[in-house]
Design a protein that fits this description.
This protein has 115 residues and is mainly alpha-helical. Helices cover 82% and strands 0% of the residues. The chain contains five helices and no strands. Helix 1 runs antiparallel to helix 2, helix 3 runs antiparallel to helix 4 and helix 4 packs antiparallel against helix 5. The longest helix has 24 residues. It is globular.
């Protein structure tokens, strides 16, 4: 919780400097940090998965590029950590499988000599 407290103090200072409604800002901060480090990793994993899917869907990234699979690995790591902390084992299994598939895809890309 020390990290969450430091982030909250810095956010409070930033909010005051920007003259933003403190109650709304704190609500957003608490949404991300109310469960500590596992929540942070869970949200980072969610963002990584969504960015990978968004970039793929908009044609900014191709499935045969390492970056796409690295984003999926980061997403899997973050969400697996969060799921373990919450004893959510179906999500642990699916995210580990997702990461294995992404590692395998990177191995295939490297074997073919692609970027």
């Amino acid at each position: 919780m020390k990290l969450a407290n430091k982030v909250n103090r810095k956010l409070e200072y930033l909010v005051l400097c920007l003259n933003v409604d403190l109650n709304k800002s704190m609500a957003v901060t608490l949404l991300f940090l109310n469960k500590g480090l596992s929540s942070f990793f869970g949200w980072m994993g969610t963002i990584a998965y969504l960015m990978a899917y968004l970039l793929l869907s908009t044609g900014k990234l191709k499935a045969d590029k390492k970056l796409y699979h690295l984003l999926n690995i980061l997403g899997a790591i973050g969400l697996t950590y969060n799921a373990v902390r919450l004893n959510d084992y179906p999500n642990v299994i699916v995210n580990i499988a997702w990461a294995i598939i992404a590692f395998w895809a990177i191995w295939l890309i490297r074997r073919r000599g692609q970027n």
